[in-house]
Design goal:
By secondary structure, this protein is mainly beta. It has one helix at residues 2-7; strands at 15-21, 34-36, 41-50, 55-65, 68-69, 72-73, 76-88, 93-100, 106-116, 125-134. It contains one helix and ten strands.
Length: 139
């Protein structure tokens, strides 16, 4: 029994890391909280495969209008901005710089959805942040 326990590999936890970095390459929960149109915001999307196998992924980016009235945020007018499809071997990572701008004033939610194994019924991982776009700056 001792020999079996000593030589049998322990099962490895499998998961995928999914996050963004701000323009400075740091983790920031609000990478671009206030945009003055037409200024753009750039984030770097990062996916790290720790699934112990090669995995096909898709990243979708959706923008929602997200006005807040009191303590309630309502989401409407979803626009799909981009989709990236790629395959990652185990213990490899994928990074993609993504730049967007919002020309209409208001509060928005940027939704980043990670899909795995070509299963698009529901996102495997979902991360998001809110952005406030202000009127165009005077020259």
């Amino acid at each position: 029994v001792v020999a079996y326990v000593a030589v049998t590999p322990r099962p490895r936890e499998t998961y995928t890391q999914f996050y963004w970095l701000d323009e400075n390459g740091t983790l920031n929960p609000t990478p671009c909280p206030d945009l003055v149109a037409p200024r753009a915001c750039t984030i770097t999307i990062v996916v790290v495969n720790n699934e112990s196998r090669t995995v096909p992924y898709s990243v979708g980016i959706d923008l929602w209008e997200a006005p807040r009235i009191g303590n309630v945020t309502t989401l409407h007018n979803r626009t799909t901005l981009e989709r990236f499809d790629f395959t990652l071997e185990d213990e490899r990572n994928w990074t993609q710089a993504y730049t967007f701008s919002i020309l209409k004033p208001g509060r928005y939610k940027l939704d980043l959805l990670l899909f795995r194994d070509n299963d698009f019924r529901s996102a495997y991982r979902n991360i998001f942040f809110f952005v406030t776009s202000n009127a165009t700056a005077a020259p």
